[in-house]
């Protein structure tokens, strides 16, 4: 499910947000990736601050629409393969976009990525959470375990 919205200004001209209030319908990273590909798209890659802002605006509109959207992070198409260097200082450089995009744009939350066993990336959406060191847990990125359900 999810509503498709199209714009002319970005490389990715159409976007589709899928949000599931029902926790049992949320999926891991690979399932989300496959669902997007079966739908003819790809998990989101973000090219710029402007595109990040566009997505934030879309999420804010979804929240305002009274659909009852609450806490629940969103998978984006950034991930890291292989665990060999997961704990080293080069870890942040190992993340790549699932659709092959080479955008260097990143919007990590403070102290992220934490690496280790966390290799797939979410865009935070936790409006009810108390803010952390990097401010509210809204829209910045966090690496998470790929089998988590979002």
UniProtKB/TrEMBL annotation:
Pfam families: Lectin_C (PF00059). Keywords: Lectin, Membrane, Signal, Transmembrane, Transmembrane helix. Residues 10-150 form the C-type lectin domain. It is a single-pass type I membrane protein. SMART domains: CLECT. It is found in: Membrane. GO terms for biological process: positive regulation of axonogenesis. GO terms for molecular function: carbohydrate binding. Gene3D superfamilies: Mannose-Binding Protein A, subunit A. One of its GO terms (cellular component) is cytoplasm. SUPFAM superfamilies: C-type lectin-like. This is CHODL protein. It comes from Cephalopterus ornatus (Amazonian umbrellabird). The gene is Chodl.
């Amino acid at each position: 499910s999810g509503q498709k919205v199209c714009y002319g200004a970005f490389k990715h001209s159409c976007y589709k947000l899928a949000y599931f209030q029902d926790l049992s319908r949320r999926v891991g990273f690979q399932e989300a990736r496959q669902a997007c590909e079966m739908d003819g798209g790809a998990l989101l890659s973000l090219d710029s601050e402007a595109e990040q802002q566009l997505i934030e605006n879309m999420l804010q509109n979804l929240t305002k629409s009274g659909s009852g959207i609450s806490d629940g992070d969103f998978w984006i198409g950034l991930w890291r393969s292989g665990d060999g260097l997961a704990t080293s200082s080069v870890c942040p450089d190992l993340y790549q976009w699932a659709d092959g995009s080479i955008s260097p744009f990143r919007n990590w939350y403070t102290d992220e990525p934490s690496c280790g066993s966390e290799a797939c990336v979410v865009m935070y959406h936790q409006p009810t959470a108390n803010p952390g060191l990097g401010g509210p847990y809204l829209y910045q990125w966090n690496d998470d375990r790929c089998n988590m359900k979002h």
